[in-house]
Amino acid sequence: MARVDLTVSQMDFDTGLVLSTTAGDATDHHSFTNASGDVFIYVNNGSGGSLTVTALTPQTVTSASLTVEDRQYTVANGAVKFIGPFPTATFNQSDGKVYFDLSADTSVTLMAIKHGPSS
């Protein structure tokens, strides 16, 4: 099935940002558009256990044919964590999106956030 695409919300000095989260999906997983490499994700883990967020890395170092390992982040039960930003050369898939997987989704909420210009 298709990944659940997160809408990237922009935060700036003048307007701030109201959190508008999406429920985690450990079956279809998630993605977000990352055109400039300055997007990070907000993860709120109320699952009752530790959560692993895995950012998939399609990058290969061509001269040595080495695949860059996926990056894993642990979010403790009851914790909120901001993860990123995600450099485009390392994390963007061919469609310009970052793909990430969750080890659990019960009571897990997410949001993709980009910092905007200051006034």
Provide a concise account of the structure shown.
By secondary structure, the protein is mainly beta. The protein is built from one helix and twelve strands; from the N terminus they run ββββββββββαββ.
List the helices and strands and how they pair.
Elements: E1 4-6, E2 8-11, E3 22-23, E4 30-33, E5 39-45, E6 51-55, E7 60-61, E8 66-67, E9 71-75, E10 80-83, H1 88-91, E11 97-102, E12 108-115
Parallel strand pairs: 1-4, 2-12
Antiparallel strand pairs: 3-12, 4-11, 5-10, 5-12, 6-9, 6-11, 7-8
Bin the helical content.
under 10%
Q: Taking strands numbered 1, 2, ... along the chain, how are they ordered across the largest sheet? A: 1-4-11-6-9
* Shape descriptor: globular
The secondary structure category is mainly beta
Sketch the topology as an H/E string, one letter per element: EEEEEEEEEEHEE
Query: How many helices in DSSP terms?
Result: 1
Mean pLDDT: 92
The CATH topology is given as: Jelly Rolls
Strand content: 35-45%
CATH class call: Mainly Beta
Q: In the residues, how many domains can be counted?
A: 1
Distance between the termini: 41 Å
Low-confidence segments, given as residue ranges, are none
- Give the beta-strand count: 12
